[in-house]
């Protein structure tokens, strides 16, 4: 792999950019691999990357039904934060956030991580108490957050209206090293690094069945023939239930639609991410100047990658109350993704009833920010059989009542 | 916007008049049930990409619960029926089978 650098740009400029190579190869699938990962989104590719980089397992294939990063990795609002209440959540999200800090250098691919700061508004007394508690918990967990006053909120976000009619801003939970990253680049960067390690990324290849022998996984059937493996990692977000069905077990997961939208581009007016969870809306400004807006999930199961119109209306109505200056913005486009929501709204990174088969799912509405940490933990789980990062997120917590009371992936703003 | 026929009051109810209630026809486990059975009752849900049976309440209408058979991949609605039953009506199942010959039945994804 040729490294990207300022020198490479100069070199290619001098020869009409004829020397750039493809970022990743598209090989024919082999008959078997040590590890197959189903799903070439951020989580799947990150898993493959850390399997190779940290645990030396490079005979890996990542199989993708559609195209690389074409699911929720390309559909989210790119927010990165780790200000969670419970220890297991804070640990895996902070691992992810800290890996994002150096991901561009690590991958030699600019993922445009921008630690611009994430502010979660407290707009009810309940939220005040909740976020103060979170700030205290974060101090103990080593996650840098602070609870700030409305005056400080106004200082950080001058366009905000503090004294809204329904929900005045009473304070905020501020994570200065949270922010955003370029979502596609995260998938592309991991894919390029995986391909460089000799892993196979096989796009346009749908898994149609899971093969097993004596309770142990032996491979998958795909639209391009059967492929054998020792270990199988299912990392397919909204379609987890479908894959679990092929592997012969059920999940505490329902798939629902979640929407986002962006406005026409405007001049820079807000240089942080603001989340208003009481009114279900959150907003940031992209480098192109568009206001990126995310809202709530639908209340019913869906695989259609579109959502109900009234959720957009609710979200925009709430944001206009908080940011009156956006009231005349035209919306450029709107889209939906299918998110997998678990019984306790926290993810599942776990062994499964089928030996050798592992599942990483249930990230619901908050998956993008977790990609590097999720990949790291899941790779360790697959390579060694357990990982301190994923212990609490096992499937059997539902039977044992060990829920993670977090609403990490709740059907609200993330 | 999703529009469902309320089998109680006969209204064509828009999504904003309705409250979703999750998977229909769950069987409640009682005392003495195994941990597995109770886990399945509490948390494990049908999540098919296709025909799904789900509970709805006509919240801003007559206030009553009913069940809808809907395709989660196309949003096609096959029919609705009152919630006071433990299984879908035969004629509705026939209608679904006619529209979706490959459908393997409820709970079979």
UniProtKB/TrEMBL annotation, chain A:
Keyword set includes Cytoplasm: yes
EC number: 1.5.3.24
Record GO biological process: tetrahydrofolate metabolic process
InterPro entries: FAD-dep_OxRdtase, FAD/NAD-bd_sf, Rhodanese-like_dom, SoxB
One Gene Ontology CC term in the entry: cytoplasm
This protein's UniProt keywords: Cytoplasm, FAD, Flavoprotein, FMN, Nucleotide-binding, Oxidoreductase
A GO molecular-function annotation: nucleotide binding
Gene3D superfamilies per record: D-Amino Acid Oxidase, subunit A, domain 2, FAD/NAD(P)-binding domain
Reactions catalysed according to its record: sarcosine + O2 + H2O = formaldehyde + glycine + H2O2; sarcosine + (6S)-5,6,7,8-tetrahydrofolate + O2 = (6R)-5,10-methylene-5,6,7,8-tetrahydrofolate + glycine + H2O2
UniProt entry tagged with the keyword Oxidoreductase: yes
Cofactor(s) the record lists: FAD; FMN
Residues in Rhodanese domain copies: 35-79
EC class (word): oxidoreductase
Source species, domain of life: Bacteria
Location of the protein in the cell: Cytoplasm
Primary subcellular site in the record, as a coarse category: cytoplasm
Record family assignment: Belongs to the SoxB family.
PANTHER family the UniProt entry points to: FAD-DEPENDENT OXIDOREDUCTASE DOMAIN-CONTAINING PROTEIN 1, SARCOSINE DEHYDROGENASE-RELATED
Protein's name according to its UniProt entry: Sarcosine oxidase subunit beta
Naturally occurring in which organism (per UniProt): Poseidonocella sedimentorum
UniProtKB/TrEMBL annotation, chain B:
Highest taxon in the source lineage: Bacteria
GO annotation (BP), single: tetrahydrofolate metabolic process
GO molecular function, one term: sarcosine oxidase activity
InterPro entries associated with the record: SoxD, SoxD_sf
Pfam families assigned to the protein according to its UniProt record, in alphabetical order: SoxD
Entries under Gene3D superfamilies matching the protein: Folate-binding superfamily (3.30.2270.10)
Protein's name in the database: Sarcosine oxidase subunit delta
Organism: Poseidonocella sedimentorum
């Amino acid at each position: 792999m040729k490294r990207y650098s300022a020198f490479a740009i100069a070199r290619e400029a001098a020869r009409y950019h004829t020397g750039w190579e493809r970022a990743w190869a598209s090989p024919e699938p082999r008959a078997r691999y040590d590890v197959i990962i189903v799903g070439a989104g951020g989580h799947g590719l990150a898993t493959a990357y850390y399997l190779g980089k940290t645990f030396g397992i490079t005979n890996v294939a990542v199989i993708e039904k559609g195209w690389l990063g074409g699911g929720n990795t390309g559909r989210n609002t790119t927010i990165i934060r780790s200000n969670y209440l419970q220890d297991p959540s804070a640990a895996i999200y902070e691992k992810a956030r800290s890996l994002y800090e150096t991901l561009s250098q690590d991958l030699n691919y600019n993922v445009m991580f921008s630690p611009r700061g994430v502010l979660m508004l407290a707009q009810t007394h309940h939220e005040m108490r909740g976020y103060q508690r979170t700030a205290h918990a974060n101090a103990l967990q080593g996650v840098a957050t602070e609870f700030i006053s409305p005056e400080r909120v106004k200082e950080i976000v001058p366009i905000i209206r503090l004294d809204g009619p329904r929900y005045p801003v009473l304070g905020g939970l501020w994570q200065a090293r949270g922010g955003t990253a370029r979502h596609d680049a995260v998938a592309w960067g991991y894919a390029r690094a995986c391909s460089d390690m000799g892993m196979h990324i096989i796009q346009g290849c749908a898994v149609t069945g899971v093969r097993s022998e004596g309770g142990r996984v032996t491979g998958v059937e795909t639209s391009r023939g059967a492929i054998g493996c020792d270990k199988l990692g299912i990392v397919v977000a909204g379609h987890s239930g479908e894959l679990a069905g092929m592997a012969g077990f059920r999940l505490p997961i329902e798939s629902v639609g979640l929407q986002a939208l962006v406005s026409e581009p405007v001049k820079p007016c807000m240089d942080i991410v603001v989340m208003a969870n009481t009114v279900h809306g959150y907003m940031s400004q992209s480098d192109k100047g568009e206001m990126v807006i995310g809202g709530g999930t639908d209340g019913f199961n869906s695989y259609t990658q579109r959502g109900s119109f009234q959720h957009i209306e609710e979200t925009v109505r709430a944001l206009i109350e908080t940011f009156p200056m956006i009231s005349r913005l035209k919306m450029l486009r709107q889209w939906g993704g299918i998110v997998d929501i678990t019984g306790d709204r926290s993810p599942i990174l776990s062994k499964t009833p089928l030996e050798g088969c592992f599942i990483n799912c249930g990230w619901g509405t908050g998956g993008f920010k977790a990609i590097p940490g999720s990949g790291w933990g899941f790779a360790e789980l697959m390579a060694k059989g357990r990982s301190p990062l994923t212990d609490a997120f096992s499937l059997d917590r539902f039977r044992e009542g060990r829920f993670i009371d977090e609403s990490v992936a709740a059907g609200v703003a993330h | 916007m999703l529009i469902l026929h309320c089998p109680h009051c006969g209204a064509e109810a828009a999504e904003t008049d309705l409250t979703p209630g999750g998977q229909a026809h769950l069987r409640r486990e009682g005392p003495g049930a195994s941990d597995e059975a109770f886990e399945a009752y509490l948390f494990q849900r049908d999540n098919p990409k296709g025909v799904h049976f789900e509970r709805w309440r006509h919240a801003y209408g007559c206030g009553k619960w009913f069940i809808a058979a809907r395709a989660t991949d196309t949003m096609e609605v096959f029919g609705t029926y009152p919630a006071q039953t433990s299984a879908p009506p035969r004629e509705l199942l026939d209608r679904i089978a006619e529209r979706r010959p490959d459908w393997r039945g409820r709970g079979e994804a």
